[in-house]
Queue: 4 jobs
Job 1
Amino acid sequence: MLSVSEEKENRTNKPLRIATNIILVALIIGIFKFFLDEDYTNDSVGWWLFILFWVVRSLYGLVNNLLEGHKWLTAVDLGIYLLITRFSPYVVE
């Protein structure tokens, strides 16, 4: 059974979770749109959307784990974020 404070915290996190999921679904749709179209020259846009998807996902996980007090998962999400932002210019040119 959830306590009153946990129920309140779930209600405050719900709009953030819904907004993040809408953004992630929109990015996935954009990724498929640019990867699976006839024009191969705009595949780089699909790669940038893919990188942006992982940035948004890792930042959401980082904030969520930080608020919940999961130090190890916060460090993992921070590492993923730094890896993506550091090496993405070398991957997509």
Note: Residues 4-35 form the longest helix (32 residues).
Job 2
Amino acid sequence: MMRKITLFFIACVFNAWCVSAQTVFFSEDFGTGCSTASLATSFGWTVSNTGTNDPGANRWYVSATENGNAVGACGSQCGSNRTLHLGANFFTIDGGASYYESTPFFCPGFFPCSETNKRIESPVINCAGYSSITLDFQYLENGEANDDQATLHYFDGNNWLFLHNLNKTSGICSPLGTWSAFSINLPPSADNNPYVKIGINWTNDADGLGSDPSFAIDNIQLSALTPLPVELLYFNGNQNNNQIALNWETATEINNDYFIVERSDDGSTFYPITKVEGFGNSSTNIHYEFIDKIIKQSYYYYRLKQVDFNGTFDYSDVILIKFIFKNPDQGILIPNPTTGITTLQFQSELNDEHTIVLYNQLSQQLKLTSYRAYNGTNSLPFDFSYLNEGIYYLHIIRNKTSISTQKLIIY
């Protein structure tokens, strides 16, 4: 059966985001099951006569009497993977991609003649919103030179246009045929066209010289280069006092729902810290910013997750921001809240003695630690797991002056 799907593959690079992707927007694999002698018209396809068709003319079927196989495999019959194929309508009805070719001696008279000129046409395919469209499929074919053959055609909404004379594929698999891959770019008139059809025209005369297989096709796909939701010009950040300011700008937006700003302590594991609504659709530059006020360490990694309206998302490049505390001795506790194990991290511009004092909410001193700080980042681990759950205060004292107080939460 026919199915429509959307898949994204990275196709090019533009700064932090790619600006286009390969989208498979139409797919037809004809389903599974034998369905012997089922006419293609029962599957939503249409047959048009393109010339003389004798009483014994061949017909288009969808069934697994000609089984769909992998590229490079020989043709086979009586499977379960259905294909669209041209088969006989006399002697054997739908024997797979095996056609009836009458001979002048017996036709007309003993047997019906078999001249066939029939084009099988897909349902209408809506290509609106897509450009640079590529048609891909798998097929096998033989016949007789230019007398018995399949040709590929395309409907632009007004006229049927010739695309390609498909090559014979029998090779070492004669007379069963060899499954082969085929790809072609559709004309520009298919771009943004809601009325596209794909057609295969089969022609055979009645001279008795043709050879099986006739023609079979499977796994038809249309794909296109389409823009991703956002063209990102830049994403950067810098320290703003004791905060980090993140800025980014887009050049174009298509169905842009929102951004998620993600942060990481180690550059590996990221977690979301805020959601910023997107502009939706825009062809002008849009500027965004976010202020990260919760700073607990000297380095942070950031990235953007951009999400469009149908849930498709992409990530920006990762940026690293180095943070320098404006008050050199201002400290942070990591983690906080904690079950007891934590590390006091602070900056110092002096090699000097510091005193760390822990108080409870009643201002009762619970612990006193002396520590010689060094110029730069200092890390002092603590184990407070013996404390009851609650709120405590850690004072940093230098030269008998309290320079910082950190609230500690034990849970």
Note: Residues 363 and 393 are 9 Å apart (CA to CA).
Job 3
Amino acid sequence: MGRWRGYDSPGRMSAGTLMGCDSRGRMSADTLMGYDSLGRMSAGTLMGYDSRGRMSAGTLMGCDSPGDSVASMLMGCGSPGDSVASILMGCGSPGDSVASILMGCDSPGDSVASILMGCDSPGDSVASTLMGCDSPGDSVASV
């Protein structure tokens, strides 16, 4: 019974056992919960803390890769390339700029100027829209 439960002779959980405690009763590295010998979560474990108690890359906060920051993930960035600011502003992709989204651009190809001037699509030019062109194909001269 004692061996199945993984206790050593003083009644403490032993290393490499079911619960994974080391000989001092602390969770050992590479165990179920992944604590290091100081009682801190070790890197590459279930909770993903590094040896200093900090969140490591690719862990509990949902980072996809080491390039992701905890902050960017909390803010809902879709990928490491996304910035916290751009996501907060509602950018659809890393290519979107905060300014273009604020101005109502539908896609990264839209320019702030063209949107401000009322262009219907990225193909519209500021000049043609100012002149009242109905579509990107209209020229200022024809209008």
Note: The CA atoms of residues 20 and 31 lie 5 Å apart.
Job 4
Amino acid sequence: MSPEEEVITLNLSTLTHEFSGIPALLDQGSQASFVSEHIVQLLGLKRTNVNGKVSCLGDGHLNIKHAVNIEIESRYEPVGKVCVNAYVLKSLTSLLPSREVCIPDWLELKTLPLADPEFSSPGKVDMLLGADVYGEILQNGVKKSPHGNLLAQNTLFGWILSGKIEQESVKENILNLHVQVREDELLKKFWEIENEPNSIEKRLTEEEKLCEKLYEETTLRRKDGRFVVRLPFKTIDPQCQYGQSYDIAINKLLSLEKRLSKNPTLSNEYHRVLEEYTTLNHMKQTLAVLEKDKFPVAAHITKNDYYVDDLMTGCETETEALQIYEEMTELMNTGGFELQKWSSSNQRFVNYICEVSDNRK
């Protein structure tokens, strides 16, 4: 037993549930209170999202994501209640005590209403009460054993024991918890991310500014709907005199597609990066914006239901599916894009697409 850690038994209650005999660890060395995931689910407690870390010995730490409010009361004084804000952890400690201990030879101890009458037997701890509530539960009354090795302290939940009990030498587990919710740091990072798109222009080099200007002044759309964009060349090689790069670029692209098809993990990561470019406005879905008045349904689907170059959408009726197919085909054709490899759970819809494709050939 440690002078700063005592196991007690509590009654817990919420608006809809009451449970008695919940073991808790009283630890004034902890800056916050904690509760196990098991108790949170058992009581059906409402969680509050938090972002913090629990620091422990050896420079270790655990991330915490939720906190709950619990009302606890003593089996001896039900009118005395304490509200606790506790952070949720998957588990708190191993069995406490770690092994069966001998009940001390102290006659007065038998007359005291103990916070945990079964303190000598190992048991699971589902809640830890830290220094944030320690002062609230202490009451007047302190007793010391005749040998001076044990101390009994009166609390709202009954008498708690601390001190040393003579037993065989064993390795002791020491628990110390520290929590820090980094709200200021999190908020700072949030604002930095929010402001980043507005500060991109300020960080552009002269060469990058020339690229922006080239795209703005030379990008056009042909009569067949295709977009034409002039590529910028560095001044050291304006005419690409060191060789043609078109065939090399095509081979690189085909090699990349082949590699991604064989590695789903790499493919997902590649697609995630492209999605991030879209989120940061480094890429835009231009065709859907220009043709939204002419093809409203297809424009909406293009903006919301594409995963990189794969369209994944759905509808409730076969008629709607045919409308989507026709509009999407026409919209993409205006930009010179041909949709291929259609698939559906409706076989008649698939047959219709195959028939249309054969007629076009």
Note: Residues 284-361 form one domain.
